[in-house]
Amino acid sequence: MCGIIGIVGNKSVADRLVDALEKLEYRGYDSAGIATVSQGELDRVRACGKLVNLKQKLKETSLSGHCGIGHTRWATHGVPSEVNAHPHSTQRVAIVHNGIIENHETLRQKLMAKHHHFESLTDSEVIAHLLDDYLQQGDSPEDAVRKARKELVGAFAIACIFHGHDDLMIVAREGASPLAVGLGQEENYVGSDALALSPFTDQLFYLEEGDMAILSSGSVELWDSEDKKITRSTFQSQVSVEAISKEGFTSFMEKEIHHQPQVVEATLASRLDDNGQIKPSGVDWNAIDRVTFAACGTAFYAGMVAKYWFEKIARLPFEIDIASEFRYRMPPLSANGLCVIVSQSGETADTLAALEYAKSQDQTILSIVNVPESSIERVSDITLQTLAGPEIGVASTKAFTTQLAMLATLAIEAALARQVITSSQALTYIEELRQVPSLMHLAMGKDHVIRTLSKKLATMSDTLFLGRDINYPMALEGALKLKEISYIHAEAYAAGEMKHGPIALLEDGYPVIVIAPKDSIVEKTASNVQEALARGAWVIAFTDAPHIFSGCDYIEMPESTLLQSPFVSAVLIQFLAYHTAQEKGTDVDQPRNLAKSVTVE
User: Fold this and answer.
1) Which of 18, 216, 383, 437 pairs with 46 at a CA distance of 20 to 30 A?
2) E strands, 29-139, where?
3) Annotated catalytic, 2?
């Protein structure tokens, strides 16, 4: 969510700040703004809604200055509005903030008693007034930030510029919100991630927990949480401006759906050695009697799929939890157990908190992330990088299927290490995975059929998704995708549960989406479909056994196995959601109210 960009250099920054904010639109936002300091004076422009509104206001009110900050806000405290938009400022300081200040109300009352006047309902504005209060008392900008940060409770990444200081920016990080510092020639930068900095530099480092940095056009100085001056190793970002272009597609989501075969293939290849065998992950599978899994959203559904693989193929118990529930449930965990953490961004606040709980219980942490140098990677014992590349669309597509690819290889590795399967069986499973990109290509050939069905689906207000066995989590993922980008209410159930409640919803024309590749229980799913048809439901079946699903509209899937079918299903449900959303005219890349990187609880 919320994006930060900052530039301190030797040429005008206003237009470049806005250009950089465009690279952060994928994170989700509902307002935006920039602030600069020029000849000692602070100025800012803010606007509600999309960046086009901010650009229009900047045509009317130009900002000068070689030092500035920008922000895209995803509303938490206070409705989306110009007054609640960042940057927040006083006469002496302007700030942008990602995260949550938990004690903002206490600080607000304290500062109001000292005659500070607040404009907004945000927790973030408290930071500006707290800094202003110290500056009024004669503290330097550096000391004001040091003192203020000790009073703030919660998670924050902040960037600050100051009245009277044309060549100074101070940034700090506490908690889950990431912040990267980019290094340039006579210019330095700060951003929420490497994507924000990609137009300017590929040399950067991330602030660690408790870090504070002082930036000028010619230097970067860094202090840790104990106020000791330190250095951090820089790395070369692999993100390029070209990597975040649409490449001729109408949307990022469409591009990312079509890129899945190649990124899944690349991810699988990264896990195989020259002999075509799975590389060791570093996990001692024989020392583990249970895997604990925690993630959020689509990544959680990847874990639900993996549960079937680990338990059926590796015969290893696999417990899954929504990360936001995991630490509060405080589950007892076996000493020296394994906890698998999955996050596309590597910054998801709830998932990071689940990780910290697992570490407190002496668990080995294996993380699967898509962003190098992310917070989750830095605190994990073992990290596997998916090779999805930048995923700009808020609704996850290629990140999900590359997560599945990683989890599938882990299940096979665990099964072989535990001698549940033979080397020959392992090679058979690996060959099945090698075929997955081709099967995904075949599934993409059904795009035109799905586009036709989506015209009718787009007129509906509710939808029910059904699936059995490994297809149940894929039904959940299908329902999530549809409601995320088309705003059609969708629920998903294990098909056998339909008669225990959801069947009451069914009436003439009610849409039911069934994921039913041919397996040992496909006839049972077909029976559930007949129950729906008998009540007048309009059923769409994704299946490679259409003869079993008479009376339905269907999309014929390529034949697939237990390991392969989730990848095939993923493509089809993504296209269904995408085309339905296109029919409705919604914003598929930036659906309302959603954020790509969720760095608050």
Assistant:
1) 216
2) 31-38, 41-48, 67-73, 88-89, 93-101
3) yes
Question: Please, what is the average pLDDT of the chain?
Answer: 91
Full-model pTM:
0.82
Apex 563 CA angle, 475 and 306, nearest 5: 65
Annotation says 596 is catalytic: yes
For residue range 124-174, list pLDDT tens digits in order.
999 999 999 999 999 999 999 999 999 999 888 999 999 999 999 999 998
Share of the chain above pLDDT 90, in %: 69
Please tell me which residue in 2, 48, 67, 160 is annotated as part of the active site.
2
How many Å apart are CA 475 and CA 438, to the nearest integer? 22
pLDDT tens per residue, range 493-513: 998 888 899 899 899 999 999
- Name the token pair of 108: 């607000």
Helices (H), 223-296: 252-258, 260-270
Q: In a 3-state reduction of DSSP, which class is residue 10?
A: coil
Sequence-distant (≥ 6) Cβ neighbours of residue 520 within 8 angstroms: none
Of 398, 446, 481, 596, the catalytic one is 596
Instruction: State which amino acid sits at residue 399.
Output: A
| Strands, E assignment, 291-372 | 291-295, 318-322, 338-343, 364-369
Beta pairing class for 203-206 and 180-183:
antiparallel
